[in-house]
Amino acid sequence: MTFLAIDVGNTRLKWALYDAHRPGATLLAHGAEFLDHIEKLAEGSWADLPVPQRMLGCVVAGDAAKRRVQEQMELWDVPPQWVVSSGEEAGLINGYDHPSRLGSDRWVAMIGARHHVLAQGPARPLVVVMVGTAVTVECIDAHGRFMGGLILPGHGIMLRALETGTAGLHVPTGDVRMFPTNTSDALTSGGTYAIAGAVERMVQHVIQHCGEEPACIMTGGAGWKMAPSMTRPFELVDNLIFDGLLEIASRRFAG
């Protein structure tokens, strides 16, 4: 029962084909395309794939991008299904004021993170950080309730904003330094520490609210860049959204 998982982000489409729709399934193939190149999938990296029997995805790039993906999927006879955030799914309770307005990528990643932690031991509070075009910092209590989260600009957005609004500054290729002594390092370090500071603040909020140290998980294409600059231990988990999609699929497609 081959299963295709798709994550349509703000910049890229990421996909993975598994041999089953369950956690721990074997990865058969995977890839990524920039959104401008979605139309190449059917004749490119998807052309020789085993035909998926099931598909589940999440999309934050809008309905137009979703339609373009679905057009590429017409080479297979598989109905496209997309996750929409809800009040509860796969053991996670949605505390957002309007649950359906929570970004589906955030919802799916939290489901993946929660079950990742449960597989390691007893339930505990959790902070989930996704570092991509935007950065999200989510808080989940030990009972599986999403308490709320932050959204802030990713590195690229911060640096482009500075370049646009400040004369003489250009997007740098600097390094993260404790005490930057040139503009490129100052910009790179400033963006990195801004994200790290927001995460640290949310960890402190969780400790105050829940009375215990949370497990901390980081994911996203730029997560590896942030990990060395964090103020507390974080587990870096690749493809957390795919883990969440597998968890959801195991329930939706059961039987």
SSE blueprint:
Elements: E1 3-8, E2 12-18, E3 27-34, E4 54-59, H1 63-72, E5 88-89, E6 92-94, H2 104-118, E7 126-131, E8 134-140, E9 145-153, H3 155-165, H4 183-210, E10 215-219, H5 223-226, E11 235-236, H6 240-252
Parallel strand pairs: 1-4, 6-9, 7-10, 10-11
Antiparallel strand pairs: 1-2, 2-3, 5-6, 7-8, 8-9
Based on the model shown, name its key terms.
Nucleotidyltransferase, domain 5; 24% strand; four-stranded mixed β-sheet; single chain; alpha/beta; 6 helices; seven-stranded mixed β-sheet; globular; 255 residues
Characterise this structure.
- The protein is of the alpha/beta class and 255 residues long.
- It folds into 2 domains: 3-82, Nucleotidyltransferase, domain 5; 88-244, Nucleotidyltransferase, domain 5, CATH 3.30.420.40.
- 32% of the residues lie in helices and 24% in strands.
- It contains 6 helices and 11 strands.
- The strands form 2 sheets. The protein has a 7-stranded mixed beta sheet, with helices on both faces.
- Strand 8 and strand 9 form a beta hairpin.
- Helix 2 crosses helix 6.
- The radius of gyration is 19 Å and the shape is globular.
- The N and C termini lie close together (12 Å).
- The mean pLDDT is 93.
